[in-house]
Structures are given as structure tokens and as C-alpha cells.
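Regression test attached.
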Amino acid sequence: MTHAADLPAWAALLTAFLVLVGAGLTLIGAIGTLRFGSFFERVHAPTLGTSWGTGAIALASIVCFSMLGSRPAVHEILIGVFVTITTPVTLMLLARAALYRDRTEGNANVPPQSLLRSSRGNVPQDRSSDDMR
Amino acid sequence: MITDILLWSVFVAQVMLVAAMGCNAYRLIRGPRAQDRVLCLDAMYVGAMLLVLTIGIRTGSQIYFEAALIISVLGFASSVALAKFLMRGEVIE
């Protein structure tokens, strides 16, 4: 940790605060995956880590390396932008897959297909729609 | 003094991230269905990426940024492939 002596005090304190905030939010999201009851509640929990968990730690890295290198180091924004874009894509694909699996197995706690027929998009044609009713 | 604060907060943050990955690993092993496991694998990718970023802050090296970027790209690709597999039964058709 020899480089930390080169940081000014406000940058070191800001980096410490942002790192703690990001890690704490990620931990809260991970505890949420343990405590929620069903998959469709659980799919919300990791987004704490992917929104402000990633954002705060990337900001801390930006502050730290900008002060160390005496010029703005903003390439950590790439990670923030990439995670922000890809997480909704992944989770929506996963939630649709879970909905499809639940409907195919005939679970009663998911909405029936007729409610979502207008917004089906590229969901595969359900081959067993008679089993669910 | 300030250096000690930064050192300890980065250490505490790493412990919290490891605890978060431990929670995700518990759900990954015990999760009742396959979609829970895929969800927690995705969350573990994010946790590993954040852990690599904090190691980069701790050591002051820029190399860890590229490792974190590669981890996030691979995590997105693998999660999308697994979600497609859960929906269709095959990845490439």
C-alpha cells in the first residue's frame, strides 16, 4: 500500500467511503438472494450490486487512479456502462426462461398465458398450452 | 493515518464482497431450481469483478481493470447462454 501515501486526504477518504458503500450494497443484495422466497422475488436482489455497487466501486477506482496518475483516468466508466447495459438483458432473459419453465410444468403461481399474449415477442411457441389450463 | 483508513476500508470491503459471494454460493448450491443457480452464478461473476477492482485499488495497478472488464464480458456471455439453454434446451440452434 505504498501508493496510498501519494493520495491527498480528501481523495483517500472519498475512495474509502465509495468502496465501503459499493461493497455494502453488494452484500445487501446477496443477503436478499438468501432471504427472498420465490425466484421472481430473488431476481431483483442482485441488481443492488450491479447498479450502485458497481457504480460506487468504479467511481472509487476513478478517484484513486486520477489522483495517482495526475490526469483523469475515466476508463472505469466502461465497466459501469457495460454492467448497466448487460444486467437487464440477462435478467429479463432469465425471468422469461423461468416463466416459460413454470408454465410448461403447470405451476399455479405464475400468470396464465392469455394475460401476456400481446407482449410475447420472441418467446418460443408453447407446445403444451393445453396442459396449463 | 489516512493511509490506514484507506487500507482498512478496502480490506473491510473485500471481506464484505467475499461474504456476498459466499451467500451467492450457498444459494447456488442449495437453490431449488436451475434458474436460481443461474441467477446466483451471474451475481457471483459481478462479485468477482468488484473484488478484482478493489484489489486494483489496493495495489495501485492498472492491470486489474482489464481483468475486471474481461470477467464482466465473460459473465454476461455465460449468463445469456445459460438463460437461452433454460428456455430452449440448446444454446445454438
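Expected vs. actual: identical. The longest helix of chain A spans residues 76-105.
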